[in-house]
Design a protein that fits this description.
Pfam families: ATAD3_N (PF12037). The protein is mostly helical and about 110 residues long. It has helices at about 1-5, 35, 45-55, 60-75, 80-114.
């Protein structure tokens, strides 16, 4: 996360991403179930916190690309046509899905009759 604070990686006096916020991933203190006598489903505190933090990880690169594409599209003189086209594509997909649903319902009804 050094990029977030404008810190360069080349400065060796600053801690790296792996040194901030606790031990690096994979260094958890897990005892095999055979040694603890338990079923093996118990996690240590470091494993619990690591699994909790994994839920909060977010890669924003896709979101940034989408935002950039949206900005470029807004600046385009064909923005309205592109929006209309995407609306038509969405309506077409919805109609196709409705047709498939009706097909499935018809096949279920015919299976019930047989």
């Amino acid at each position: 996360m050094s990029w977030l604070f404008g810190i360069r990686r080349s400065d060796p006096s600053l801690p790296g991403d792996d040194q901030i916020g606790g031990p690096p991933l994979g260094s958890g203190d897990v005892t095999p179930p055979s040694e603890t006598g338990g079923s093996g489903d118990r996690l240590t505190v470091s494993d619990k916190s690591r699994k909790t933090m994994e839920a909060y990880r977010f890669d924003s690169s896709a979101l940034e690309r989408a935002a950039q594409a949206a900005r470029e599209l807004e600046r385009s003189k064909h923005a309205k046509e592109a929006l209309d086209l995407s609306k038509l594509q969405e309506m077409t997909k919805q109609q196709e899905m409705q047709a498939k649903i009706k097909e499935y319902e018809a096949s279920i009804e015919s299976a019930k009759v047989e």
